[in-house]
Amino acid sequence: MSEKTPSKLEKILRQGHLAVTSECGPPRGSDPEVIREKAEMIKDYVDAINITDNQTAMTRMCSLASCIHLKLMGLEPVLQMVTRDRNRIAMQSDILGAASFDIYNILCLSGDHQSFGDCPTGQNVHDIDSMQLIQTVRLMRDEGKFLGGDEIARPPRMFVGAAANPFADPFEIRVPRLAKKVAAGVEFIQTQCIYNLDRFEEWMKRIRDRGLHEKVFILAGLTPMKSAGMARYMKNRVPGMDVPDEIVKRLSDTPKEKQAEEGIKICIESIQRLKEVEGVSGFHIMAIEWEEKVPEIVRQAGLYPRPSL
Amino acid sequence: MIVGEQKPLEEIWEMVKPYKKVLVFGCNTCVAVCHSGGNKEAEILASLLRIKAKQEQVEMEIKNSGIERQCEHEFYEPVTEELNWADLVLSTACGVGVQFTAEKLATTPVFPALNTTFMGAVDAPGVFTERCQGCGQCILAITGGICPVSRCAKRLLNGPCGGSSNGKCEINKDVDCAWQLIVDRLAALGRLDDYEKLTPIKDWSNERSGGPRKMVREDLQQ
Ligand code: SF4
Ligand code: SF4
């Protein structure tokens, strides 16, 4: 498959390397240093950096501006875009804005419900859904057209991604749902954090049975646990998260001051194991407010140095 | 039917207390079914307000009345006198009825006693749940008869989102995930393969976004 965009992430994946991405959450304020500092910590260890879009519906600096800061540092951003907050006019407009800064990657999401964030009394938009956002970006890129049908002067050139949660319900449509995203035009997938490796491998097997791994690059999502408390919280409180008991136990059996280290170890072991899974094209390491640990994880998982193009 | 919920008495009292002749005006169709604003509820509310007025030592006269439906002209005739008597009409109809009544009374204010909540069904005695938002372009045929516009918290046309868990929506464990219901229903209908068909981007111009809606049936016009 030849490249369709100037995206570095696309190039690395199409050349058959295991890609590594990570993410940074923008600050709840306007200081660009926050985003630059986080990026600085991880930049040599990842191929691209996702910038979240008001994650958990907490108002933050916008993803687009943060991506521009990364771009100005010479880095490769992945613009996350949720359909919760903007209608089709605003989203197409932001896509063009991003394209004007040569941002080459986009991740299409529906976004957490606003009741989780700091504006629970606000409206949500959901004019189109994440599946339709994938279609929209592909239309804009491949046909050079707006949803309204008019021609775009200098269409965006974006490698189009989406999320997938192998662990969410209903179980019977986990694979069909991915097939649907592929049909919509998605090119890469970053998965929900994986702790239940058996269940993930079962999902991958079904993906391979349908040949979907040949149509989309799948980056396995990982988040290191900082403590047994965090593991319990993720297990019990975060919808759509599957944390097996043995992970919780392993962390609780570790003395408190060593739990973070153990969490990193689990993360590295998971990567080692998932590297062997056919159809896994890379890793998306989401070290939430713990970006400084990304280099260590990448190194110890044998993913360093990153390919230079 | 349209479901409504009576506002807290304190809030109603704040609205009515400056007036001297208050007519609590019931609507005996939809909002009677949910026991919020029928003629019986209007009567009860009037009594509560009389007690309240007494407690607060405010002088006012409070009457109650009601009609079959406040959203149709034909029912108003018998209550003309009562409506004209009042210096405030407190309507226990849905928002449609409140406005329709107000259109008949050029100089008398008409206030709402209910919060109009949704179009829904009577799930069980005392339990009402939303089913439709009147989006103007019904897609129930492709979603197994379950409406994602009104029943998915993100109105996803190609759901579910990643937050669906054990059949429940990410917003609340008491709310069914519409997409779990859709998938189950498609499976029961032997149509699970249809799940993979992409639902196209919706034309929202037929719903609220397109501005106030109007339907004209020439064959019924006189
Ligand atoms: S699709 Fe539209 S018209 Fe049909 S039930 Fe849902 S909101 Fe109502
Ligand atoms: S959990 Fe289900 S109902 Fe709730 S927002 Fe997600 S798809 Fe919609």
| SS strand fraction of chain A | 5-15%
What number of structural domains do the residues of chain B give?
2
**Number of continuous helical runs of chain A:** 11
Number of domains of chain A: 1
Biggest sheet, spatial arrangement of strands of chain A = 1-2-3-4-5-6-7-8
Structural class of chain A: alpha/beta
Task: Calculate Rg of chain A over CA atoms.
Answer: 19 Å
Reported by name, the CATH topology of the largest domain in chain B is Rossmann fold
How is the largest sheet of chain B built, in terms of strand order? 3-2-4-5
Multimeric state of these chains?
heterodimer
Helix proportion range of chain A: 25-40%
**Whole-number average pLDDT of chain A?**
97
Q: Write down the overall geometry of chain B.
A: elongated
Instruction: Report the major sheet of chain B.
Output: 4 strands, parallel
SS summary, helix count of chain B: 7
Unreliable stretches of chain A: none
Write up what this structure looks like.
Chain A is an alpha/beta fold and 309 residues long. Chain A has a single domain (8-224, 271-300), classed as Alpha-Beta Barrel (TIM Barrel). Chain A is 39% helix and 15% strand. Chain A contains 11 helices and 8 strands. Chain A has helices at 8-14, 32-42, 63-72, 88-100, 130-143, 174-184, 197-209, 228-237, 245-252, 259-275, 294-300, and strands at residues 19-24, 48-51, 77-82, 105-109, 159-164, 188-193, 217-222, 280-285. In chain A, helix 8 packs antiparallel against helix 9 (245-252) and helix 9 (245-252) packs antiparallel against helix 10. Chain A is globular, with a radius of gyration of 19 Å. The model of chain A has no long low-confidence stretch (mean pLDDT 97). With 222 residues, chain B is α/β, with parallel strands linked by helices. Chain B has 2 domains: 2-118, Rossmann fold (3-Layer(aba) Sandwich); 135-209, no CATH class. Chain B is built from 7 helices and 9 strands. Chain B has helices at residues 9-16, 30-33, 39-55, 80-85, 95-104, 148-151, 178-188; strands at 2-6, 21-27, 61-67, 88-91, 110-112, 114-124, 127-132, 168-169, 172-176. In chain B, the strands form 3 sheets. In chain B, strands 3-2-4-5 form a 4-stranded parallel β-sheet, sandwiched between helices. In chain B, strands 1-6-7 form a 3-stranded antiparallel β-sheet. In chain B, a hairpin with a 2-residue loop joins strand 6 (114-124) and strand 7 (127-132). Chain B is elongated and about 65 Å long. Chain A binds chain B through residues 83-84, 88, 110-113, 115, 124, 126-132, 135-136, 147, 163-165, 168-170, 172-173, 176-177, 179-180, 183-184, 192, 239-240, and chain B through 153-167, 170-171, 177, 179-180, 183-184, 187, 192, 195-196, 198-202, 204. One iron/sulfur cluster binds next to helix 7 of chain B.
